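Methods — Computational structure assignment.
A single polypeptide chain was analysed. Its primary sequence is given first, followed by the predicted tertiary structure written as structure tokens.
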Amino acid sequence: MKGTFVRTTVVLAVLAGLGGYAWFVEREKPARSGDEEPEAKKDKVLAGLVRQRIEGLRLQPRGGEVVRLAKRDNTWRLLEPIDAAADMAEVETLLGNLENMESASVAAEAPADLAEFGLAPAQARIEVEVAGEKAPRVLLIGDKVPASADVFAQTNARNSVITIPGYAAAAFEKKPFELRDRNLLKIQRDAVRGVEVSGPEGGYALAREGAEWGVTAPVKTRAGRYTVDGFVGLLESLRFDAVAAEDARELKPFGLDKPARKVALKLADGSTKTLEIGSGAADNKFHARVSGGSLVAVIPGAIVDDLAKGLDHWRAKRLLELATYQVTAIEIHEAGKVRKLARSTVKGAEGFDEQKWKRTAPDAKDVETKLVEEALFKLGGTEAASFVDAPRPLAAYGLDKPRFKVVLTLEKGERAWLELGEAGGAWHARRPDDDALLALDPAKADELLKAFGSL
């Protein structure tokens, strides 16, 4: 009996302890969603400010240059310390900070000495001109709050000193150069229809038809679509790193009296915009200007690095630019015989669409899809070893009677073909709309023949 009493007492004590622990834990838990007390609403520093109504900004850092910006026809312009187009992304960051800036706390309701907060004089003074308001709104930014990431601030709308997040204040530390539009060419890549290049590597021209690029001079040959697109994108996003001269009266000091390189861009509206590149600057950078302009800028060397590679850099080095999924039919001409293959779509065991290949001539036979894809991948992945821009008669390359020809039908009904010829152990390829021949490594040619021979 005594043992039973002791055990019962222990169990009750444990249960009581667990109950107390549970009460303590539940008391310390944060309120569940729906029961939470709302956070104190933070006040906007510039109450009622809407960025679309801001028409001007004046930024005056302590001991620094005054920066003044103004909106003209929905476009922002830098007016001081220079007159130049403004960087819209940078201005939007400033406007967003002004519109959304919230006060973290009130540091002093009616301070006797603003100098205690770094506000007399202020670390920075921002004046905001707002449509419909006679006087500008003023935001003063002061010292950093001790042991905090916030800073002291004050507006002309109230006497109290408040604190604001340091990151919001840091947005107004931009130097004039950081706020100007540094886009040198101001073009859209989709508007570029042609590129003409002159320089120590020679002159050449490229043109775009649809999505495809081709070399048009000094030889008509295919260009690598993604290589040229990448270069045009580089020109589109070209931003200068420094200004060598805002209004250059003499071009010779920058090597622009006789530019080492020129890149002329033919645009969709019929106009031409030319980038002139002169002498080198420090750290693999170069002096440059837009033809006819007075601004001489310093640009990064990436564009010059590409241009220095010469014409061969822009060629389509692969025999054919294609993706296996684009091909719907194949004709293989070899040894006087023709084999034809067609692609069809069937429902697989799982109910999903599957691609199947079938030989339709000279006989009907299923062909393993993997073998077809490997052959097409080989065709699309094989690169020329070199190019023959002024070929002799086709018989000199065995292309008057090609050893191999493949004709591809693509999804949109387009057709592409390639011929291989061999003469004296040397292999060359010919493709449509291309005046140049492609010299192939014999081993690569043999791999290609074997891949299509398996079909």
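Note: The chain has three domains: 52-179, 189-314, 324-453.
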